């Protein structure tokens, strides 16, 4: 359980969401409240392909990150663990995939 005294990405964001990007990919979007929050999540020293890969148990080489400073948005895509609608799919619309990312603690002194 995360320490709620430590702010998370979700605390700095206006919205963190996930959705299907076709039957084989998930896309997550971090809509940050302001440029300061964006600088934190856009910093590759904090949030990068390896961090996402570890959170979602996918290969880092398969993670795609798009940083959009003019919108204060970071978009992340990676292959779904199982195809959408398959027997073992537990979230057909990928609507809950964002939760581990939203709960990721922000490094001390950056929020």
From TrEMBL:
Domain DUF4387: 10-102
Record-linked Pfam families: DUF4387
Domain of life: Bacteria
Protein name as it appears in the record: DUF4387 domain-containing protein
Species this protein is from: Actinophytocola xanthii
